[in-house]
Amino acid sequence: MSSRKGREKRQRKKQKSKDIDKIRIESIKLYPALRNEKDGAIYGYIDSKGNFVIKPKYQIAYDFNGSGIGIVQENKLMGGINTKGEYVIKPIYDSINPYKEGRAIYVLNGTMGVIDEVGNIITKKSYSFISDYTGGRAIIGVSNQDGSYTYGYIDREGNEIIPPKLLEANEFNDDVALVKVKDDVYGLINKEGKLLNTYNYGYVSQYGDGVMVFANSFNGPFGYINREGKVVIKPIYKVATGFKDGVAIVSTEEVYNFKYGVINLEGKYVFTPIYSKIEHLGEGRLALGMPIGDDKNIGTSIYAIGDTTGKRLSDFKYLVVGEYEKGLSYGSDSNYTFFIDKNGNIDKSLPIVKGSGELRFVNDIIRANIDFSPYYLTRSGKVIYKPNDTIVLSPKYSATRLKYKPNINYLIYYPEVKGVTDKKTEKDINLRLKEMSYFKPYTEENTKSPETINPDDVLNYNYYGDFSVEFFKKNLLVLNLIGYYYPFGAAHGMPSKKTPSIDLVTGKFYSLGDLFMGGVYWVGELNKIIENMIKTDPQYNDLFDNAFKGITLDQSFYIDENNLYIYFPPYELAPYAAGFVTFKIPFVDIQGMINKEGSFYKSFNI
């Protein structure tokens, strides 16, 4: 009983700190809002009525902190503005994280530091790594000559509490943090850096509720020890997570068997291990997932809400469930997103919106992020602000985002061009763009999957597609059709990219060869330029050896006013992490080959 009271006291203390920060933020009722333009998505700030107070011009915009500073990105550099849109933190940083506990972590020239709540740099020196603050402390890391890292901690004033000499460091929780002192030796420290106890195991992690996951080796089996190092739950699990709200998620099966249960601090099951997935939702609630579809190994689940005493509160009816905040969560089924109360029921007094995603209260309004579209609502469901779907290219031309979502796991935004004089040409352009935007994965037999995707189909993948305007001038529209395909269970997904160059007068989709004069061996000349770039430009040092075999007649490319860009998908020339390897070739370097009397060149030149 006493341990439960202590846990509840600590939780109240944490919540009080969060509430104080939130009250300060709530006094500033300005909200980041997106607008779609031909130069890309940009953000400004609106008031609670949906009027722009700070005009859209930022590539990134975060909520204002309690001192009235909003972190923004403009021209690829980040800084901080006040509620009048004036910079109070100069836009010189490569990145700045959103404020947490009154501190923001920045990156400048490859190193990291900390900015306080009014914009002052408080770190005395730069570090290779700094985490966000938790419990008044941030983890710092420095890189060593052998490529390894060692870690320590700084306080809210930027002072080193523990120099970076630890092999591992974790966030503070209940005023203590779990660290790795040396191989096979872990320890708990207090906020002053005092070592409270050590644990001689091959693996210790995830401190919570007074206990830690442990194992004799990194591969398990896993159990739990308390702060004194006593084994309180024997190491019998193949999977074990840290305790939260008095419970932990465990499995005695291999990961791919998807059989998870929930135990209490005595090691007793409160939910037997029959679930495909379980998530902590906070405030004493859990999402309990059961597999759906014929293939039980693809990781698709439908969820019910349960509590930490072992009571299931709802039926299995949610495909998406979010964490609880002040008694409310959000969830989605195959058609709608809504708020969920602590009893696991849909709160029908609050908005229910079409699509899937997130709903959260921000001050007295609701922030929605539905089908990757962020907007704001009143409590009654009235739209306060929603981003525009039509992108104005010129007084004559525009491109509208149309949505195709046959299934919760399949969403595409595709372009519809308007303003083409000949309506048949316009129709043909849009039909081709629609076809280019669609995605059909290959089956194991290397054949295309079925043409039709139904709402109740259980897909073994997620797919998201969208587009942006890469370049527009005169009559030439270059679009960037992007996609991301993620097969469930894969280490990562695979991005896709198509960049059609469209003449809005003739309807022609140009190929790379259309840019050059006939009789010129442009393929060979471009190959020479790219080969030289690979040899001389350091940005291509990580390419696979001898991977470039030359461009093709149907080579992927795009242009802007002054340059040609040749690109290749992940894995073709370089590792996945390199993304789309792109070669930028200025027109001045190839002007002798360009057909300046051709329709392609004339489509974007006077």
UniProtKB/TrEMBL annotation:
InterPro entries: DUF3298, PdaC/RsiV-like_sf, WG_beta_rep. The lineage of its organism: Bacteria, Bacillati, Bacillota, Clostridia, Eubacteriales. PANTHER family: DUF3298 DOMAIN-CONTAINING PROTEIN (PTHR37841:SF1), GLR2918 PROTEIN (PTHR37841). It holds the Pfam family WG_beta_rep. It comes from the Bacteria. Residues 514-587 form the DUF3298 domain. This is DUF3298 domain-containing protein. Gene3D superfamilies: Fervidobacterium nodosum Rt17-B1 like (3.30.565.40), Heat-shock cognate protein, ATPase (3.90.640.20).
